[in-house]
Write a structure and sequence with these properties.
heterodimer, A: 333 residues, mainly alpha, 2 strands, 68% helix, B: 97 residues, alpha+beta, Ubiquitin-like (UB roll), 18% helix, binds fe (ii) ion
Chain lengths: 333, 97
């Protein structure tokens, strides 16, 4: 009900002249200012729709590609319990992808189209998932830092002005806390373990710290879409605000582990009650985003392979469904 | 529906959280048929015992009111405050009313 008929409805509403669009836009902004939720069938500016399709689909792709670095360790998790936990976590991420694709579809784009864009390498996804997971400690660091940063980004999205996105985020946020806690617990075990285990945890923190800070996106001054997204209440806090909050939360957690945050400039600012941290290397971020990260090619190849190798299953499901439908029809006749 | 690379039909999923509660809309998913919709809904929406019963409805079978008609449909109820118990002033002394 949320996808079908959207196009015709949109055209209908747009039948009016340009001055009416201005009036509609004003009314739309007034509803947003009043904290009313926008729902799929209501009128919305084309740019709002496009911005949301871009953001929600990138988010969905990130959940799906995000299954890969962790999936790498499912067969090698150190115990049966850890294996079960990791499977459950990776399955959650697949679910998050599914919720988000559904939310994007309410805006009149098909899932087929979105997945096609990902497989063709035309779509963006979070650059963090282009880093490798060489040790078990990377699984701990991902849960703790990457899911931790994701939570920081996602909690304000639960109040996003677009209803289906906000509702998907509520569901997702409920599941994320387990992800972060299981990761931190892995780090805790390792850092309380043998010296080589602790060193393994330290190395993983070294690898994931900076990429995690980059997850919040470019600095406010550089961010192209920030201001408009704030006005539309798709976004509630700036990238820099969220990044600062993440650092403030995470540094004491690292201290508790007895691990060193790999930033010589890191210091506590007593007056501001914030941690001050060093400059982020945005050229690395740009490189990874452009496809030159350590695992970009591998990630897309893995997705394509999964899609191709699953084709016979999809074909069989469709064949089965049409056979059943034909049987039903002849029974009814 | 012969081309399996095309999107499968969309189903709206409703979950009953516990016996005695209503089924509540939780989201939508694609499936080739109703049985698959139920199985996918199980995996997608009840991984933490969120439900004891699932309804799956083809999205295209749902008839929805048009948001443009909202005023015509719901406005008439706005001035009928006398339909609410709080409309009536009853002296304090009168109990259990
Ligand atoms: Fe997730
Ligand atoms: Fe997660």
């Amino acid at each position: 009900m949320y996808t079908q008929g959207l196009d015709s409805l949109g055209k209908d509403c747009l039948r009016d002249e340009a001055q009416d669009i201005g009036r509609l836009e004003q009314r739309f902004q007034a509803r947003i200012d009043a904290e009313e939720k926008i729902e799929p069938k209501g009128w919305m500016p084309e740019a709002y729709r496009r911005t949301l399709i871009r953001q929600i689909s990138q988010h969905a792709h990130s959940e799906i590609v995000g299954m890969l670095p962790e999936g790498n360790w499912i067969t090698r998790a150190p115990s049966l319990l850890r294996k079960s936990i990791l499977i459950a976590k990776v399955q959650d991420e697949g679910g998050h992808g599914a919720y988000l694709y559904s939310a994007a579809e309410t805006l009149g784009v098909s899932r087929d189209e979105l997945i096609g864009q990902l497989l063709e390498g035309k779509a963006k996804y979070s650059s963090i998932f282009n880093y490798p997971t060489p040790t078990w400690a990377d699984i701990g660091a991902i849960g703790w830092l990457v899911d931790g940063a994701a939570i920081m980004n996602q909690i304000p999205l639960c109040r996003c002005s677009y209803g289906p996105y906000a509702r998907a985020m509520v569901r997702i946020c409920k599941e994320e806390s387990f992800h972060q806690r299981q990761g931190y617990e892995i780090m805790l075990r390792l850092s309380r373990g043998t010296p080589p285990q602790k060193e393994m945890a330290q190395q993983a923190l070294n690898r994931w710290w900076w990429p995690s800070l980059m997850m919040f996106g470019p600095s406010d001054a550089e961010s192209k879409h920030s201001a408009q997204s704030m006005r539309w209440k798709i976004k509630r806090f700036s990238n820099d605000e969220l990044r600062q909050k993440f650092v403030d939360f995470t540094v004491p957690q690292a201290e508790f582990l007895g691990l060193a945050v790999p930033d010589p400039a890191l210091s506590w600012d007593e007056a501001a009650q914030h941690y001050r941290f060093g400059a982020i290397d945005w050229s690395e971020f740009e490189q990874v985003l452009k496809g030159h990260g350590p695992c970009n090619r591998e990630r897309l190849e893995a997705r394509r392979r999964a899609h191709d190798e699953g084709r016979w299953v999809r074909d069989a499901a469709v064949a089965h469904a049409s056979k059943q439908a034909a049987k039903e029809k002849s029974r009814a006749a | 529906m012969t081309d399996s690379s095309r999107d499968w039909p969309l189903y709206e999923i409703f979950i009953r959280a516990r016996a005695g509660l209503d089924h509540k809309h939780v989201g939508s998913l694609h499936a080739t048929d109703a049985m698959m919709a139920i199985e996918h809904a199980r995996d997608l929406y009840t991984r933490r015992q969120e439900g004891v019963s699932i309804w799956a409805v083809r999205s295209s079978d749902i008839v929805a009111s048009d948001p443009a008609d909202a005023d015509a449909l719901f406005e008439p109820a706005r001035d009928k405050v006398y339909r609410h118990p709080t409309f009536y002033d009853i002296p304090e002394e009168v109990k259990t009313l």
